[in-house]
Write a structure and sequence with these properties.
Length: about 240
């Protein structure tokens, strides 16, 4: 058992160290996310009610648009360096290695956006005690996006128009994530307006949406690594 998890942990650390060595992709996604979410409040002016109403949708759309270009580059650099070929001949299961790469991609792509979201949420007029719920939805939904993006990137690996193919695959499959995420944050907003600062009401409002998003995450955790591994195996052969 230790022989399986050790190479997976090594893959995660290697990907995170590589991203820290070349931080351009991380910073470009984060800057794009900040740019989208700051231009909208400037365009709408000082209408706090309108800003708070569109905040859930704008934050989720910004996360999707900021992470999509990085999804396309999940495997291209490693395919050129021969890393994927070494993974194919590794004694560890390829699906487990892909899961490790997906979790590392979540840390690299999604975690900076999640950490920046509370500050941007305050710009949209979201109450402070709602930010924990926003972070939870973004963290779980972001993992769904990375799981979908890994499958799309593997299926389009080696294509000259890989960016277009990745977007065509990711955007339709990401619609349930967007719907559940926006609906969950909107439900928290609605119950906050009706019940004041009642934490129990806020938890009850988002329970159904977080359960649906959690179920989708579990399905993708089971489906995405083997599909990604099979697509990479096919492209390398």
């Amino acid at each position: 058992m230790r022989g399986i998890f050790r190479p997976c942990f090594a893959v995660m650390l290697a990907d995170i160290r590589s991203a820290l060595r070349y931080p351009g992709d991380m910073l470009s996604g984060l800057s794009f996310f900040i740019m989208i979410t700051t231009l909208v409040p400037l365009g709408l002016g000082s209408d706090q009610g309108e800003l708070a109403r569109i905040a859930p949708a704008m934050i989720w759309i910004a996360v999707m648009l900021a992470s999509l270009p990085q999804m396309d580059r999940l495997f291209t650099r490693h395919a050129k360096d021969g890393v994927l070929e070494q993974m194919l001949v590794s004694p560890a299961p390829m699906a487990m290695l892909m899961l490790a790469r997906i979790l590392a991609a979540w840390v690299i792509i999604i975690l900076p956006l999640v950490l920046a979201a509370p500050i941007l949420g305050l710009m949209f007029g979201l109450p402070v005690h709602m930010l924990a719920g926003v972070l939870g939805f973004l963290a779980m939904g972001g993992l769904c996006l990375v799981l979908i993006g890994a499958m799309a990137a593997a299926l389009s690996l080696g294509s000259r128009q890989s960016g277009i193919f990745t977007a065509i695959i990711v955007l339709p499959l990401s619609m349930p994530v967007l719907i559940f995420g926006v609906a969950g944050i909107s439900a928290i907003q609605t119950d906050h307006a009706m019940a004041g600062d009642s934490t129990g009401a806020l938890i009850g409002a988002s329970t159904g949406h977080i359960m649906l998003l959690g179920a989708l995450t579990l399905v993708l955790l089971v489906l995405s690594p083997p599909v990604t591994a099979a697509a990479i195996r096919f492209s390398e052969e």
